[in-house]
Amino acid sequence: EVASDAQIIFVLGGPGSGKGTQCDLIIEKYGFSHYSAGDLLRAEVASGSEMGKDLEATMKEGKLVASSVTIALLKKAIANACEAGKRKFLVDGFPRALDQAEEFEGKVLPCKLVLFFSCPMKVLQKRLLKRAKTSGRADDNKETIQKRFDTFLNTSMPVIDHYEKLGKVAKVSAEPAPEKVFKEVEKVMKANGF
Ligand code: UP5
Ligand code: MG
Known about the structure:
194 residues, 8 helices
């Protein structure tokens, strides 16, 4: 079971905005448990399961997999960590659509904070094309990157707008170097009692 006193931060931002990079830095300093929805999906693909084949095809199109899949993976991971005594969680790259946010909050827990990494798409494209040379990620190619951007702008940005209205969003520019971005993250963490 997910503990009712668990604290969840949604870490959001466009493809390549540095969600994973900043989560690593947050873990080092603040000792959170980190779950990347994308990493959990890629692990499922790598397992070679039948479901993994469908997931791979969806991700290659830059589309969103069914929220029942991501929520089940996240809930299981968070519940296991709660049983091991963990209470602070970074949920990276989820929710990516408004209905996913609502479903997660109903089935798991409301988030305490949304950490939003903002960055122009031009900068993100450059980063992802560079990473494409070594990442081996099936969605790191020019065509899929464009589709990921389209999905982000059309479907995922409304999630940010929704939480902004609730006063839960801390927006940080993801354009400077990682250490500089993290300085701003530290301010946000402090302001939120971490
Ligand atoms: N880098 C990082 N920070 C930098 C900085 N400040 N300055 C310069 N360079 C910087 O970083 C990306 C690259 O940029 C790296 O090379 C890094 O060194 C450099 P990273 O930290 O990996 O950024 P991140 O935001 O984590 O990028 P990622 O590619 O993981 O973002 P996506 O949101 O595209 O990928 P994700 O894994 O979350 O999702 C992949 C796909 O899974 C989705 O497209 C979708 O099909 C599916 N999905 C769902 O369907 N549902 C979900 O809930 C989640 C995923
Ligand atoms: Mg990532």
